[in-house]
Each structure stands twice: as structure tokens, then as C-alpha cells.
Design brief:
Elements (H helix, E strand, L loop, with lengths): L2 H14 L12 E7 L4 E10 L2 E10 L2 H14 L4 H15 L21 H24 L3 E6 L1
Parallel strand pairs: 1-4
Antiparallel strand pairs: 1-2, 2-3
Length: 151
């Protein structure tokens, strides 16, 4: 099996069997993201306690790239402190623009082929941009943040 086939299989698995799907009733951060050009929509629910993502869930609909990226993102950020999450955001967004990641992105490397299709990069980064803006709001306000992000 080629590397491209393994990557496609990983993306399709996360799309068909998303991890951390559903609403989180006790979330401290809720953010919605939408890409009106292609119809991708996501809602992120994060429970942040003592500077760490204790739990994360998402709801959404859209293409396999946006949904798989969100699923993979929820897996890798759960349990991380906010500085680690910010490093992951920077590394993932950098990878989508051709930079070699300086942290382990796990399954997310399966999405690096998306950068060959610039219009699809927005699909892959939608959840990450929403997460970054939600953390910015959360840290600025020190309280629950709800924001609608249009990519």
C-alpha cells in the first residue's frame, strides 16, 4: 500500500467514524465555524480547566477533509495545555502551507496532500482557525467564549 493510499484511508476513516462527535453540555468554550464557499460547518465544544483542554467534542457537516481534520484535531488536543494546543495550531497551519511541522501531528500528516489543492486548504484549516480564535477570545475575556467564524 502506498503512502497516499494510507493517507486516504486515514482521512476516510475519520470521516466515516469521527472521534469525539457530539455536544459537550459542560463546555467552557463554544465556537462555530463555517466556510460559506463550500458549505462546511462545525461547532466546537471545549472544556478548559486549569489551562488544559480536559474534553472536546464537535458537531458538523461538510466534506471529508473538514470533518476528518476536525476529528483528528479533537484527538490530538484533548488533555493538552493551551500552550501545547497553540503549538499544534501553528504546526498544522504551517504544514498546510508547505512548512515541515516541528511537533508530532500524528494522523494529521495524512492531510498534508491537501496543500496541492489550495481551495481545499480552507476545508482542512476551518476547525483550527475556529479553535485559535476561540482560545484568543477565552484568554482575553477569561470566561466562556462563543464566536462564529467564517472562513
Amino acid at each position: 500500500m502506498s503512502l497516499d493510499e494510507i493517507y486516504k484511508e486515514t482521512i476516510l476513516d475519520h470521516y466515516a467514524h469521527p472521534r469525539n462527535k457530539g455536544r459537550l453540555s459542560n463546555s467552557t468554550i463554544t465556537v462555530e465555524g463555517a466556510n460559506p464557499l463550500c458549505g462546511d460547518e462545525i461547532s466546537l465544544y471545549l472544556l478548559v480547566e486549569e489551562g488544559r483542554i480536559q474534553d472536546v467534542r464537535f458537531e458538523g457537516r461538510g466534506c471529508s477533509i473538514s470533518q476528518a481534520s476536525t476529528s483528528m484535531m479533537t484527538e490530538i488536543i484533548k488533555g493538552k495545555d493551551l500552550s501545547q494546543v497553540r503549538a499544534l495550531i501553528d504546526a498544522f497551519k504551517g504544514m498546510m502551507h508547505g512548512k515541515e511541522p516541528d511537533v508530532d501531528l500524528g494522523d494529521l500528516v495524512a492531510l498534508q496532500g491537501v496543500r496541492k489543492f489550495p481551495v481545499r486548504i480552507k476545508c482542512a484549516t476551518l476547525a483550527w482557525i475556529a479553535l485559535q480564535q476561540a482560545l484568543d477570545d477565552f484568554e482575553e475575556k477569561g470566561a466562556t467564549a462563543t464566536r462564529v467564524v467564517e472562513e
